[in-house]
Specification:
The protein is mainly α. The protein has 9 helices and no strands. The chain has one domain. It is about 80% helix and about 0% strand. α6 crosses α9. The longest helix is centred in the middle third of the chain and has 31 residues. The N and C termini lie far apart (about 40 Å). It holds the Pfam family DUF1361. Keywords: Membrane, Transmembrane, Transmembrane helix. This is DUF1361 domain-containing protein.
């Protein structure tokens, strides 16, 4: 039971961070003032990796499943199913405002620009996931410890394994977004 309680604490915290990433995307869409829109966009980019980051927490399941009493295994699995489901949904819903914003442009190439922007954004999100998972760089460090963020970025750039991990996560993000975007499209277009 200790594992279940421990999980609720960190899972709820990570769900809140992911929700901030989603919420900022919609604030970005609703903002008209250019400077404020730009500031919200930067904050959104900082917090958006927290959505798909939830998928990386699956790494804890095998060890916990082995250590927990049989009577709590279903509860443990339920926790991770909820976490992973929220990770996928919040990622797709949180990234969708970028697509909506670009599709609002009055240009013939807006679909193409949107497609490539989503692909590029997913690779940037991959960098954010690696910074968070491997270097333990949190989104708010940009404001509270920016020198650490710069050092962590330097470490990231000079470590080939981190770059490969970020590229892999970028590919995974693209696969998830384009696979699930159509499933959520009818709900997202109402917003």
């Amino acid at each position: 039971m200790d594992i279940i309680n421990f999980n609720w604490n960190w899972m709820v915290f990570n769900l809140i961070l992911a929700s901030i990433g989603v919420g900022l995307g919609y604030v970005f869409l609703g903002t008209k003032q250019p400077l404020f829109k730009f500031i919200i966009f930067l904050l959104w980019i900082l917090f958006l990796p927290n959505t798909i980051y939830l998928l990386t927490d699956l790494q804890h399941l095998p060890d916990q499943f082995y250590r927990i009493d049989n009577e709590y295994k279903i509860t443990l699995m339920f926790q991770y199913v909820l976490l992973l489901s929220f990770g996928i949904i919040s990622f797709v819903v949180g990234l969708w405002p970028l697509e909506k914003f670009i599709l609002s442009f009055k240009t013939r190439e807006r679909r193409q620009i949107s497609f490539y922007s989503i692909i590029l954004m997913n690779f940037l999100i991959g960098v954010g996931v690696v910074l968070g998972k491997e270097l333990r760089t949190h989104s708010w460090y940009v404001f509270t410890d920016y020198t650490r963020v710069l050092e962590d970025l330097k470490t990231f750039i000079s470590t080939p394994v981190y770059i490969v991990f970020a590229l892999s996560f970028g590919i995974l993000g693209n696969l998830i977004y384009f696979a699930f975007n159509n499933k959520f499209a009818k709900y997202l277009k109402k917003k």
